[in-house]
Write a structure and sequence with these properties.
The protein has 145 residues and is mostly beta strands. It is built from one helix and nine strands, in the order αβββββββββ. 19% of the residues are buried.
Length: 145
């Protein structure tokens, strides 16, 4: 089994366990939310692209780091405070979040870019021949404007 297959399997197992521990919405105990993530590889140029659905998240609250073949994205989506609000229906999840994505490739974290637009965070990570291990590199988020 190739290393990338093992990394992919590990990521799928981590996702499964994370999903198993989710408390149903109606239980009233659920806090935070788990944004959806897409990750794909491009060939020319050779890079990994991670797209995270973060509607309603202030880009200032987003933290992104790369280390040990994993991308970690964290932040918070805050519930808007409206005087006198009484919910008739509440389905949107709010609170802190953290997602880790197994990359399966060595990446050049110093050349990585992150852009946040229309509620979508897009992180572009150039593939590196061999990246140093054990070091976490932060990535700044560029906002439209």
């Amino acid at each position: 089994m190739a290393r990338r297959d093992i990394d992919r399997l590990q990521g799928e197992i981590e996702e499964l366990f994370a999903d198993l521990w989710q408390v149903p919405r109606f239980a009233g105990m659920r806090s935070g939310f788990r944004p959806s993530v897409d990750c794909y590889l491009t060939e020319d140029p050779s890079q990994l692209v991670v797209v995270v659905e973060l509607a309603g998240v202030d880009p200032q609250s987003i933290e992104i780091t790369v280390g040990d073949r994993a991308l970690t994205i964290s932040g918070e989506r805050q519930r808007p405070r409206i005087a006198g609000q009484v919910y008739q229906q509440a389905e949107i999840d709010y609170g802190r979040f953290e997602r880790s994505v197994a990359l399966g490739h060595d990446v050049d974290a110093k050349s990585a870019e992150a852009a946040y637009e229309a509620g979508m965070l897009r992180v572009t990570l150039p593939i590196a021949p061999r990246a140093p291990r054990g070091r976490h590199v932060p990535i700044a988020v560029r906002r439209p404007g």
